[in-house]
Design goal:
single chain; 177 residues; 6 helices; 0% strand; signal; Membrane protein
Length: 177
């Protein structure tokens, strides 16, 4: 009798397994088939965040300006959080690149120090980088196909827009055009 009682639940569990496996496979397949716009957003958002973090690390070493260092620290903290939120919003099976910084931007900053670094950092990373990020996040928030990514973009957009305003204010304060 005990054997029959154990066999029945096991049989039911095994019968349900193929359906569960099909559901898991379908969701992974669907995630791998993100629409092109959502794939572009994941790539652009991760590149933007990674570049911000790496450039901010450079700024803490190569800038002598307190305002630039404070801005960089703020960017490092916020973009680390935003990167984590993007990874959590990405569908199962979609890889969010971990370190895909824009090497062109970083290489242009590496040899610079002091005021020369500050000017290039504020212009290329602070202002131009955030302008591109605002465009990418706004596009995804308005017309993204994946609901989770669309929601994550909409949630992050005010932060990215605030970063752009901070960068523009810093540029004005430091005379960067």
């Amino acid at each position: 009798m005990k054997t029959k009682m154990l066999v029945l639940p096991m049989t039911l569990a095994l019968a349900a397994l193929p359906a569960f496996a099909q559901t898991q496979a379908a969701s992974t397949t669907m995630a791998n088939d993100l629409p092109p716009q959502d794939k572009e957003f994941v790539q652009a958002a991760s590149m933007s965040g990674s570049t911000e973090i790496d450039a901010a690390k450079l700024a803490t070493k190569q800038s002598q300006d307190k305002d630039v260092k404070n801005f960089a620290h703020h960017m490092m903290v916020d973009h680390t959080k935003l990167t984590l939120e993007l990874k959590m919003a990405a569908p199962h099976g979609v890889a969010v690149p971990r370190d895909n910084s824009d090497t062109t931007v970083l290489d242009s900053l590496k040899g610079l120090k002091g005021k020369e670094f500050d000017t290039a950092y504020i212009k290329s990373v602070g202002v131009e980088g955030h302008q591109k990020a605002v465009e990418a996040f706004q596009k995804e928030a308005e017309s993204g196909q994946n609901a989770d990514l669309k929601k994550a973009a909409a949630k992050a957009l005010p932060t990215i827009q605030e970063h752009l305003k901070m960068a523009q204010a810093l540029a004005a304060k430091k005379g960067v055009q």
